[in-house]
């Protein structure tokens, strides 16, 4: 594929992907200000993108699963992704030359409304800004969980979102937090974030448990760690995979609350005062901490993306955020 021309990444079938040409970006006839962005980096959001790559998006969720600026229709072919960082090369003078974040698929150059890009804060490098969408998901999850000073909290499942949730909650004074994953390889990443890690949790009676493993067994573990009247926040999305949940045992006697959290909606408590842009601005502002670089588990050139997808988006892959360099 000649990537000198404008090129995008397309998922074209079950576990199939390619780079395909797309038109050079131009400004549409519109009174809305537009920008043209030249991509510098993008991030593979393994959880959601793997569901698309493995054809696990339920048909009745096709519309809600659409990414901003997606092209094509589910199941295939689709241009999918939402963690793009680039430089504005044309558009309003205030944005010209700025590095920006945009919820856009993997593509070399694109035109979007100026309102769809967010300039990076001065202390956030472009390389790390690919984590913004995951940080936004984590923030929304923490809002849904409502951890308080002194709470005993467990996070089950240490992908990027789970690790970010643990990092955020661990900054609350007095919190007793444990991060849990069956993968011993997550220990070093958790330690880099200052989070206590275990493969076998030794705490009970948690006030709050976040589940982000994507596996039903992880959800069962989350329920088992929750104390009476505690909250379990489910951050995993299973696509079309049936999930067996152990709602016997202590679930009813302990009056547990199982709450879903999904970034497509703002948490109800924040909805009257916040909007999606303000939440994403917050997510970007929180990426100034160099320790978060531990969440970038690898890097590849854009030209390699179809092969990278075969390695990273297959079931059982062990990547965190894989960064694409343009």
**Residue ranges: pLDDT <50 for 5 or more in a row?**
none
Number of H- or I-type helical stretches? 7
Q: Determine the N-to-C terminus distance.
A: 14 Å
How many E strands?
A: 17
Oligomer: single chain
Compute the CA-based radius of gyration: 20 Å
Average pLDDT confidence is 96
Major beta sheet, specifics?
7 strands, mixed
Instruction: Give the topology string: H per helix, E per strand.
Output: EEEHEEEEEEHEHEHEEHEEHEHE
- State the helical fraction: 10-25%
Question: Which terms would index this structure?
Answer:
326 residues, six-stranded parallel beta sheet, seven-stranded mixed beta sheet
Describe the structure concisely:
The chain is built from 7 helices and 17 strands. It is of the alpha/beta class and 326 residues long.
Explain what this protein looks like in three dimensions:
There is one protein chain. The protein has 326 residues and is α/β, with parallel strands linked by helices. It contains seven helices and 17 strands. Strands 3, 6, 7, 8, 9, 16 and 17 form a seven-stranded mixed β-sheet that branches. A six-stranded parallel β-sheet has the order 12-11-10-13-14-15, with helices on both faces. Strands 1-2 form a two-stranded antiparallel sheet. Helix 2 packs across helix 3 and helix 2 packs across helix 6. It starts with 6 loop residues before the first strand and ends with a strand. The mean pLDDT is 96.
């Amino acid at each position: 594929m000649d990537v000198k021309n404008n090129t995008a990444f397309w998922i074209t079938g079950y576990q199939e992907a390619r780079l395909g040409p797309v038109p050079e970006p131009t400004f549409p006839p519109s009174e809305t200000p537009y920008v043209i962005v030249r991509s510098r980096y993008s991030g593979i959001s393994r959880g959601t993108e793997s569901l698309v790559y493995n054809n696990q998006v339920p048909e009745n969720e096709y519309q809600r699963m659409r990414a901003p600026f997606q092209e094509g229709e589910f199941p295939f072919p689709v241009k999918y992704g939402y963690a793009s960082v680039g430089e504005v090369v044309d558009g309003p003078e205030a944005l010209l030359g700025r590095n920006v974040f945009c919820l856009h698929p993997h593509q070399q150059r694109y035109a979007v409304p100026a309102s769809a890009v967010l300039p990076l804060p001065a202390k956030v490098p472009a390389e790390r800004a690919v984590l913004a969408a995951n940080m936004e998901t984590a923030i929304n999850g923490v809002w849904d969980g409502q951890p308080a000073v002194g709470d005993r909290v467990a996070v089950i499942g240490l992908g990027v979102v789970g690790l970010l949730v643990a990092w955020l909650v661990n900054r609350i004074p007095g919190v007793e937090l444990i991060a849990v994953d069956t993968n011993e390889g997550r220990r070093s990443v958790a330690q880099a974030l200052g989070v206590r890690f275990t493969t076998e949790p030794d705490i009970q009676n948690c006030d709050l448990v976040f589940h982000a493993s994507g596996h039903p067994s992880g959800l069962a573990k989350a329920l088992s760690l929750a104390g009476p009247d505690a909250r379990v926040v489910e951050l995993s999305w299973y696509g079309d995979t049936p999930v067996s949940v152990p709602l016997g045992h202590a679930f009813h006697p302990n009056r547990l609350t199982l709450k879903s959290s999904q970034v497509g909606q703002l948490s109800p408590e924040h909805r009257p005062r916040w909007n999606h842009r303000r939440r994403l601005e917050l997510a970007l502002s929180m990426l100034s901490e160099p320790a978060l670089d531990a969440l970038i588990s690898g890097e590849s050139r854009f030209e390699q993306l179809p092969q990278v997808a075969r390695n990273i988006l297959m079931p059982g892959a062990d990547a965190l955020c894989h960064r694409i360099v343009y």
